[in-house]
Amino acid sequence: MSKIVDAKVIVTAPGRNYVTLKLTTADGVVGWGDATLNGRELAVASYLRDHVCPLLIGRDPQRIEDTWQYLYKGAYWRRGPVTMTAIAAVDIALWDIKGKVAGMPVYQLLGGAARDGVLTYCHATGEDVPALLDDVAAHLDQGFLAVRAQASVPGVDKAYGVPAKGEFYEPASSAVPEEGHWDTEAYLRHAPQVLGAVRERFGFDFHLLHDVHHRLTPIEAGRLGKDLEEHRMFWIEDPTPAEDQSAFRLIREHTTTPIAVGEVFNSIWDCQQLITERLIDYIRTSVSHAGGITHLRRIFSLAELYGVRTGCHGAGDLSPISLSAALNVDLAVPNFGIQEYMGHTEQTAEVFHSGYTFANGYLHPSDEPGLGVWVDEEAAERFPYEPRYLPVNRRRDGSMHDW
């Protein structure tokens, strides 16, 4: 059996920073993995280059589960975003190799397609309500059947999810963290009005989503969810920080608005209680931050037992390699819910070449063997790494708040 003979870490910044792992076998088969951790990219790059890549040389690329356990249990220091993102990159690359050797797209190796396409939601934003409504209309015209709506909050600068006019949204935008300010009461007054305006203009024939981004207490989140019930939300995302999983029980007691959470989770243990006690409706763990395809399937299998559906994180801070991997899982799992699709910049497309397609509200992974994505290494060299940090938030009194 052909062994792994080379493991290379590529750091590039075509519009935003990405970390990519390239594995090559003795037969010349290449597998690509996404190791991007927004704002902490070089930590993962070093973890891979200095501690993981040397361990991969000479290993059998077909033994995916064994390699996963080797890297997870062998490190002793388990879990955490850096470790699990590094493991994910290896795992994704190995699945890519396995698909190429088998001559099949990865979803075929996962049991084949369980649906014809992957329902996808986009991001609509606006500096005010009229601008948001125009953006929603534009996305509906593009064929999207589900829209996440975010708008600036009056009196709050640097609103989450809202780019400057005409620019691509990139929160990690400076060499030191930008500081924003937050007013919970202003947000709780404004958000129902914004989402109500969307429903008033466009009706209920599409799915409407909204991201709270960890900024409320459980009781505040319950209040928001109750205020939004009349708007029939597909979900509210990350209503409160999830370190205390039991906190979501309080939200459940106050609203029937569906809850999604999990983009910052790294393992099945981060969401075990949320799933088994049915405290959420959608689990949003991403393939690149939760140990790759191998571990993501474990999380989704647990969720299936408790009626929790999937809703993978798919923002532009993950490369097309990650999106391709997510789509292959989405297509195969029985409890799929929806897939985030923010899209990527034109510069990103110069480096990452992918074969997934979008039509009529649905994405479909490439039918090429493996993940159907490859990296132009010469193009990657044209975009050197740029130090960038995610923002931080402060309340009006100057104290730190969740971003």
UniProtKB/TrEMBL annotation:
- Pfam families annotated for this entry? MR_MLE_C, MR_MLE_N
Q: Which Gene3D superfamilies match?
A: Enolase-like C-terminal domain, Enolase-like, N-terminal domain
Biological processes, Gene Ontology terms:
amino acid catabolic process; carbohydrate catabolic process
Q: Where is the Mandelate racemase/muconate lactonizing enzyme C-terminal domain?
A: 130-258
Gene Ontology terms, MF aspect: magnesium ion binding; mannonate dehydratase activity
Q: What is this protein called?
A: D-galactonate dehydratase family protein
- Give the organism, scientific name: Saccharopolyspora aridisoli
